[in-house]
Amino acid sequence: MNLVLLLCQEVEEINKTGFVLLPATDRRARHIVTVLKPTPGSTIRVGCVGVGVGRASVVVLERGEVRLTGQLSLSATPSQPHVELLLAMPRPKVMMRLWSVLAQLGLRRIVLTNAWRVEKPYFSSQATDPSKYTPELPLDRVRKGFLGFTV
Fold it and tell me: How much is the pTM?
């Protein structure tokens, strides 16, 4: 199930002008061209974080750019499960790998706690710095169909 994640500004642009142009250097455009390989007039699933999912017509231009057209009426996404995780802080290297997996589970909240064998410097490592782990989290959640994302 492929779902192309759009920014809310791009959804507004589609609804206002009728289309949005993704440059050839955009990761989403490359995915559409190489993986989805749309035929003329085909539609793809699109979504916007916190808004919902819908469909858009896709046209691939000769320079590798992708034009998404149509009026998007995004339907609400399934509600997020009411599951919270209490986790003793693992080693920072392991925690960095865990963020992606935990995001795909669709947990409502993750609480990191101290334990007898947890070293204090773990909590000041980059594994707890949101700027290090948040850029990929929305994409991981989209892979599992959760678009209601908060950090």
Answer: 0.57
User: pLDDT category, 89, cuts 50, 70, 90?
Assistant: very high
Task: Tell me, rounded to whole angstroms, the distance of Cα 129 from its chain centroid.
Answer: 19
Would you state the pLDDT for residue 142?
A: 56
CA distances (Å), origin 108, targets 36, 39, 60, 101, 104: 31, 38, 37, 13, 11
| Structural domains in the chain plus CATH codes | 4-69 (2.40.240.20), 84-143 (no CATH)
Confidence tier at 13 by pLDDT (50, 70, 90): confident
> How far apart, in Å, are the Cα atoms of 70 and each of 58, 73, 74, 79?
9, 9, 12, 26
Cα distance between residue 146 and residue 78, in whole Å: 7
Please provide the size of the chain in residues: 151
| SS3 at position 10 | helix
Percent of the chain with pLDDT over 70: 81
